């Protein structure tokens, strides 16, 4: 039986734990424009001094109005890596490999397959296989982060559970005022037409 690991108790605990984090820094969100082949979403790389656990990063991203970044194409992976790569503070090269920021992937049940995205978007094992680093997932972690081999930054995926230096937030744009007015106007026209038919 699969369990939901992100119930109210865990979210509250994560929120309290996040409050202990000493310092958070980020640049302004960068839009991946549709005209550039993007999805119109904005992405923000957040650096946390002292590191952050995945659950805490998830709560922080949602509190900011977004969610941990969901990567569903090579182009999106390249765009996110392009934002994170120049920010040295979001990479930890003190171990065997260089750990980068959290993304929105997690194992549905601890220590078990399959993986999922925080948004419920379809997880593609084929796409994931193209992105996992060498010998990954290793089974040593339940959450997805970017990492590189040795002391270099990289855009490969890693399964991990301890803290990393930051995370990537994805923001979906709010519907524009013109779009809302258009929808409202159409609804009003439908009501008027319905009244005329009834009369």
Query: Could you say what the CATH topology is called?
Result: Mannose-Binding Protein A, Chain A
CATH class label: Alpha Beta
Question: What is the total tally of β strands?
Answer: 9
Principal-axes geometry comes out as globular
What share of the residues lie within helices?
A: 25-40%
CATH architecture annotation: Roll
Number of helices: 5
Residue-averaged pLDDT: 81
- What amount of the residues lies in strands? 25-35%
* CATH H-level superfamily title: Mannose-Binding Protein A, subunit A
User: What is the domain total for the residues?
Assistant: 1
Radius of gyration: 20 Å
Distance between the termini: 56 Å
Low-confidence stretches: 1-22, 177-197
Secondary-structure element string: HEEEHEHEEHEEEH
Largest sheet: 5 strands, antiparallel
Structural class: alpha+beta
């Amino acid at each position: 039986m699969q369990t939901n690991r992100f119930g109210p108790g865990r979210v509250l605990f994560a929120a309290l734990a996040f409050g202990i984090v000493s310092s958070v820094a980020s640049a302004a969100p960068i839009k991946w424009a549709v005209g550039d082949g993007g999805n119109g979403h904005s992405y923000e790389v957040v650096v946390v001094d002292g590191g952050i656990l995945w659950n805490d990063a998830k709560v922080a991203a949602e509190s900011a109005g977004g969610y941990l970044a969901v990567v569903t194409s090579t182009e999106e992976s390249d765009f996110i890596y392009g934002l994170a790569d120049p920010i040295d503070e979001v990479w930890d090269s003190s171990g065997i490999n260089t750990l980068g920021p959290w993304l929105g992937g997690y194992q549905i049940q601890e220590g078990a397959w399959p993986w999922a995205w925080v948004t419920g978007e379809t997880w593609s094992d084929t796409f994931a296989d193209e992105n996992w680093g060498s010998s990954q997932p290793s089974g040593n972690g339940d959450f997805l982060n970017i990492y590189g081999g040795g002391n270099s930054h990289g855009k490969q995926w890693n399964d991990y559970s301890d803290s990393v230096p930051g995370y990537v937030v994805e923001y979906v744009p709010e519907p524009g005022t013109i779009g809302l007015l258009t929808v409202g106007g159409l609804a009003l026209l439908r009501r008027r037409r319905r009244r005329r038919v009834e009369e």
